[in-house]
Amino acid sequence: MAALRVVALAACVAAAVAVSYFMRENVPPWTIAVCAVAFVAAFLLGRRMEPGWPTFLFLAGGLLELTALIVVGLAVALPWFLGRVAYQQAALAATGVEAAHLRERTRIAHEVHDTLGHELSLLALQAGALEMNLPPEHQADAAQLRMTAAAATERLADLVFLLRDGDPPAVADLQDLVDRAVASGMRVEFTVEGRTPSTVERTVHRVVQEALTNAAKHAPKSVVLLKVSTADATTVVEAGNDAGLRRGAGSRLGLIALRERVRLAGGTLRTSRGDGRFELVATLPHSGEL
């Protein structure tokens, strides 16, 4: 009889451990607690039984108790399990719909970026180059066209950023901007060191765009040296080209607006002219927010 009680206790413990392991994330804690109390009660009852009781009565009582536990467990667990399945199916369906919406928004963002974004960037570059070749009475109009195209490009970048619901790849965007400049006839040497964080990547894009625009306007035949380096929680944009001989109307307005944009991002913009070269250096700490 003692051996039988030990075997029964071991079976109860094994069952409790199995239930706790395989369904530990789904079964409410109170269910396991009720089962544990029932198992302990059964063990104590068996321990206090008189040795003269027939074994079949002990087994019958145990089976009756086990049957009652199964019935009660099914009555409680089955509705909970069905509700859990329904909840998971609804969550999966909602996730699928949201994923479809995100894919569609990403597709639209790519189309807008690949069409309007590219053309507006090229328009700003070409307007800057055209400004230097116009009579003085028309240079102000060309400067206004360049600034308007640059502002439209910036607003479009903000829209694409919202549609994508994430951070666009800064290196790919910058390389695409440089490729557009090269396609328009400019000579550009572009290098990237490190990964630009999302907090400053749009400002970096704006700095590179203005550097290319200035080079196209003042020194269209010069080789433009561009470098974007990220280290020690700071991103530095360096641009250099021949200084050129003339300055058109509105030539300083773009740099003034760019200096303000960099300041709002928590950084500094430094420009210098000497030895026939024009240098631009923008320093952007990663703690700055756009």
From TrEMBL:
Q: Which Gene3D superfamilies match?
A: 1.20.5.1930, Histidine kinase-like ATPase, C-terminal domain
Signal transduction histidine kinase subgroup 3 dimerisation and phosphoacceptor domain ranges (all copies): 104-165
CDD domains, alphabetized: HATPase_UhpB-NarQ-NarX-like
Which reaction is the catalytic activity of this chain?
A: ATP + protein L-histidine = ADP + protein N-phospho-L-histidine
Q: Which E.C. number(s) belong to this protein?
A: 2.7.13.3
- On the tree of life, the source organism's domain of life is Bacteria
Question: Which GO terms label this protein's molecular function in UniProt?
Answer: ATP binding; phosphorelay sensor kinase activity; protein dimerization activity
- Pfam family example for this protein? HisKA_3
Q: Which residues cross the membrane?
A: 28-45, 57-82
Annotated keywords: ATP-binding, Kinase, Membrane, Nucleotide-binding, Phosphoprotein, Transferase, Transmembrane, Transmembrane helix, Two-component regulatory system
Q: Which InterPro entries match?
A: HATPase_C_sf, Sensor_HK_TwoCompSys, Sig_transdc_His_kin_sub3_dim/P
Offer a single GO CC term for the protein: membrane
Q: PANTHER family recorded for this chain?
A: NITRATE/NITRITE SENSOR PROTEIN NARX-RELATED, NITRATE_NITRITE SENSOR PROTEIN NARQ
Protein name, please?
histidine kinase
